Amino acid sequence: MVEETLVKRVSTVLSQSFYMIVEEIKSIYKTKTFVVFAVLMFLPVQLILVSYATSQYPQLLFEVEKAFFLNGILEEGVIDAFSDAFASAMGILIIRRGFIQASLGATTYYINIPIIAIVTLLTCGLVAAEREKGTLPVYVSKPVYRTQLVLTKFAAFALVSFALTALAYSTVYFTYALTLLGPLGMLFTGLPETISMLLVLIFFTWIFILDIGAITSLFSSIIDRSILAGVTSLIILLLLSILPNMLVIFAGVGIASFTKYFNIPDLINQLIDFYSLGFVEYYQNMWLIIKQTGFFSQIIISRMIDPGTALIIVILLIVIPLISACLITEKREVK
Length: 335
Known about the structure:
The protein is mostly helical. The chain contains 15 helices and 2 strands.
């Protein structure tokens, strides 16, 4: 009887949560902030594709075709040429023939201040807005857990941000694949070999967005005013992103051994490079970069972090703030 009641309660909570997530997604889509978020997510994609179509495509197609004819029946050269083209557009670290070919790309934008600012604005009202509008007591009066409210709102945000991130990166990837691999009849050969790069970009950019959202949600549970919660979170997140690099420059590389663990964009970028390239190629590339940069090599070394440790940190930056937000919302008095 007890087990039956527990199962029924769990079933009710899950169905209720699903309904709340759907309603929250509908609510997100209606806000002006979401429109701005969507526009900013697709802005660099449009710029990349316009540049690609107007100036880069002939040269990139030539490079892929050259690799095809030079390698003959071998396909590795074509896939490498395509991977390099996509990686360059995205800003993923690549080294070919002993030279660094990494460039400023999409990830430099997505994992930086513009997205930090808009995600902060989008999530600062997660709990604070309910207190401001006086709707939190209404939720509490119903058979809805406060933790359930926080988690469903965050889950809705997570699903929406994942869809936008996947669509933004996939637009570039499949455009490049169709126009570079397609003419050579290598589309279905090249996709399985290179799609892991796309999945890595989507996953870690999404993790970055969730980090920002979770930290902002924590401040939203502490501070009653949405704008104040957003501003506080934005200042702290910007400091975490900018201050470590400034300290390295002005205080020396020694300080980087401590601050590198708090630089979220840097952690995510290193993870993207590592999981895009693989263990061996990543460390070979880093060794070549350190060798080529000379005096600045110490700065690069001081900012490097073990990928496993970096992954744990960025996951904990979602889990800990979110659990804290739930606990605070549960304990705080509802007025």
